[in-house]
Amino acid sequence: MKILVTCPPMLGLFSEFENDFNDKNLTGIKANVTQIMSEEELIRELPKYDGWIIGDDPATRRVFEAGKLGRLKAAIKWGVGVDNVDFDACNNLGIPITNTPGVFGREVADVALAYVLGLARETYSIDRKIRLDNVWPKPSGISTWNKTAALVGFGDIGKATAKRLHACDFKINVYDPFFKHDLTLPLENYTWPKGLEDADFIIFTCPLTDDTKHMFNEEILSILKPGVRIVNVARGPVIDETALLKGLSTGIIHSAALDVFEEEPLHSNNQLRQFDKCIFGSHNASNTVDAVRYVSRLAIDKMAHLLGTIQKSEFQRK
Questions:
Q1: 180 and 274: one domain?
Q2: Same domain, 79 and 200
Q3: Does residue 134 surpass a pLDDT of 50?
């Protein structure tokens, strides 16, 4: 059975997984993709395959309907985020689908902390000025021991981020309607946007839902402490980039570190590029060879189980 793989981190190590596919009577096919395949490309290509390991592609009803008319029998969403996948369409069409939950928390949290410290001490900006301008800058950063972090989302990534922030002596205010207290950490639970006026950093680790889309918007700007720093390792549309640009332009927001954007890849004309204290990522926070190997093999295993080429999942036995 042929499996289309469109997830860039998995594609980066694709040769390592040939035996994993073969051992489960599957053939993995590497898509030619940098970030995502378009809906039209998927409609054209997906019917040729028995299974699909999905990245951040538009896994819409139209795409699944096209796949169903062809050979498609099962799909796996690689990773945790599922906002790009129409699970209802799969259920209606009788296409078994699942994701790989409970992974990447530590990896994404590591990047979140790196961004927090990068904004606090302007290390990325210093590096750029040394390399590009041949100068020796000495900006005064800020300490973390007397600062408050507003942590938006307290799932696997949020909890791991909280542990790292605690190690840096932050006061941590958590925003999550499903918050369950972690007794190992001193946390305060808030309802968004209450208390944002005290935040020195706002860190987004939440999923993208109807409730979280554009939760950071122009109305929020009037609440914020001047000089606040923003970190987003969640999903781009959680932040209204128009509001973010206004905050950066007026100085209300000191700087932002963004691993994700409303439109990816980041367009060459995007106005965010003019703010040299900001840090940009490429939607890559989960991408370590260790995590990618584990999650990719988990996805292959789950695919084989759904397609019936193995009787029992190896990962389920662990």
A1: yes
A2: no
A3: yes
